Every structure is written in C-alpha cells, then in structure tokens.
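W.,

You were right to be curious about this one. When I first looked at the sequence I had no strong expectations either way, so I just let the prediction run and decided to look at it fresh. Below is the sequence, 192 residues in total, followed by the output.
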Amino acid sequence: MLRRSYHKVTELAARPSAPAWLFFTAMAEACVFPIPPDVLLLPMALAQPRRAWRFAIITTIGSVLGGAIGYAMGYALFDKLAQPILNFYHYEHAFQTFQAGFARYGAMIILVKGLLPIPYKIVTIAAGAAAFNFWQFIGLSILTRGARFFLEAALLRFFGEPARAFIEKRLGLIATSIGLLVIAGFVLLKFA
C-alpha cells in the first residue's frame, strides 16, 4: 500500500497543476493547514529534478505569504480566528511558551523553528500575537523557510536519480523515519 501511494504521489507531482497545489499547500501550512509542503515538494523535485529550484522558490514564496497571513491572524484576529485554530490543534501550551520566548528570543525562535519539522503556523501566529517586528519576521521567514526548501531542492536536484532509487528501495524505512521525525517535532513542541 505504501509503495502504491508513493507512486501515486509522484505521478500527481508531475502534473501541470502540481506547482499551484504546492504554492497553496505551503501558504496554507504556514497559517492553518497541518500538512507540511514537503510532502509535495519532495516528490515534485524527484519527478522533475531540473525544476527543483523552481519548486523551492514556489514553496518559499507560498510559505512566507502564508506566514504573513498567520502573523496577521495573531496580530489582529487572535481572539476570533487564531485562538480557535490553536485550540483545535491543542497548541495552547505551545503557544504560551512561544509567546513568552518571543519577548527575549524572537529572531532565534523564527530561525530555528522555521527549519524544524514542527507546524510553522505556531511561529507565525505567535509572532503576530507578540507584535514582533513584521519586516524582521518576513526577512527571517524568507531566510529560514528558503534555507529549508532550497536544501531539500539541492539534495534532490543533485542526487535526483540516486535519491529516487534509494527511496524506492527503502520506502518503508524512510516512511518510518519521517513519521518519527514528525512525532519528535510534535513532542518537542509540546514539551519545549
């Protein structure tokens, strides 16, 4: 079943509409959506390694735009819009921790958390709720999200075919590892 799903996603990633879906997913993930854009970026870059840079740009722009929306939610609409989203995902404690941390370590939080496999929406909403400098937030988001997506694109651009062969040969191990990383990100978020 896992192998069939993998092949289906790589087929979908080669479709002409895939970049639009990548942009939308990256934007939505940064403010409301729970699934990271990497689930589309990686198969798209594997399916078309020569377009990996383009996909990284699309993902970065979508993520930063979504981050600006999340920031606005935290800044202007926290009680009406952001708080229900945080409550829905049970991120209340994590948000309080982030908000306290923004007072002292705002820039470092954005840089570090933007690279980790944790929901970026927590960072964006917390930055807005803490009234962190918007333009500094945007600059740091471009830096950290761009670094993450361009690193993934670079690995797949330069190691596309060997990476594809490695993934297809060890799909179960890779899926388990990714699952463990996501779980670790949520555990880190809950207890950090």
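Here's what jumped out at me. Residues 2-191 form one domain. And, maybe more interesting for your project: The CA atoms of residues 31 and 180 lie 23 Å apart.

Coffee later to discuss?

I.
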